[in-house]
């Protein structure tokens, strides 16, 4: 390449390259999805959508009730396609599912062997990449529990794999539609269902019934007011989605339940006549939009610490004007909404712009590949150092197995909240690479398996999540890694040595398990084998899927576009969404953390490291200096 790799260019050139890549990949995806729809019974009904979602949301009614809020199953987000992306819709494809380029579930190396030889941590020693802290690792799981859950076929016999030591792993097959697509048990929107639930009945369990607030109870001494999340009959936190919890995830559920109630107080003060239902619906909209903004411009800029990547995230949310001159310019969306959509998005960002559908009115949904690239279990370490927030001194070291599932609840109700969050803030997440999968997640006894083991002790049943990741990729008919790269117009690898894996043991294991055939590598393995881009936690194969899906999930959702306005959110709610950071939330509910955070610092970068420059200020510097100069300065030890 004449100018060198795009990530070495200035922000402007890098943005142009990334934008061109996105356009090319979106065109390919649209062709693939159109072919898929021609072969399928359309899962979505309704007329094709225009570039706008039509009249504002108050014109869309269900049983005579104005729908100025999200439904629990995700329906009626788009009035021309009322079932688009709702619960039960299948995942789409970014790559073709062709017989010649994929591994059938029971073909190829045993997933347990792949996990044991290629993915497992030798000796349980965690390799870290000190770009993201443990709070960042918890955050992505918090988001994933909102976006998708594979629907399992509970009527089918489980597929059973033998595990070392005489145990077995029973895996329930996913529900597939007649075209072989996997079904999402959640809606595909950024809707906060991990907090608020996916059904009205579940939501009623979570609410206090007063002023729109969520339930909190006097359940432990960890906070200044003594409150914590309510627990269900099994002793698990009662939240919208409470599977696979651990201390970090439980704490995020707790702090956002408190933040929801804080927003309710703000709305009640400004709108004293609103009832419980109206306060809840508006607070849910506001909190969910805040989650989207934090993920877009805070979490993602922690995992992509490169000028072009960081600026691209700000452009998505604030546009070029908001990025350059301040976030308050989001109010200009009222003036530019009459312009062509791409101009409005370029100037002021996606929020508040027109709702759009990609290509030939293709419906939005998450993709199978999007699930695959977010299988980031390696971010979790095998041991965590609990430290005192007041002094930084070590309290004790606990294993990952001691803070997951019900054991995490016990830790949360016995260790002070400031110490727990400080531990997450200063602890480094694991590196996304081969031979770095958490040991504790390779012999996991979930509550469901614990119940089955009580009924039938032998053989003992456990989950090896590393093997699960491999199996689910095959079950979703994902291409093998080189075919995946080719489908995304990325360079393929001619040999194992070209992957750039520094770990000689990992290279040898790859060759052994896959019979020295580079074209047989599973996607779940190949994504971890790629060398990360400079300042990133992953490689270009992951980033390309991010590029394809990130913009679409915002611009297809009317609550982030045409209905991102004062009528739905209130003026105070919009200002809150744009101005509140993760650090603000932590310091509001855990004031002791003000010793370690600043209001506009990035809470997902290890505290006390390069976490000094304000978020917006960092992007301004990115725009002023070429990426290569910034890279040289970073290599010399400077941070910003």
From TrEMBL:
Residues 1-83 are annotated as: Disordered. One of its GO terms (biological process) is response to oxidative stress. Residues 22-56 have a biased composition (Low complexity). Pfam families: An_peroxidase. Heme b binds at residue 377. Signal peptide: none annotated. InterPro entries: Haem_peroxidase_animal (IPR019791), Haem_peroxidase_sf (IPR010255), Haem_peroxidase_sf_animal (IPR037120), Oxylipin_biosynth_metab (IPR050783). One of its GO terms (molecular function) is heme binding. Keywords: Dioxygenase, Heme, Iron, Metal-binding, Oxidoreductase, Plant defense. This is Heme peroxidase. It comes from Tetradesmus obliquus.
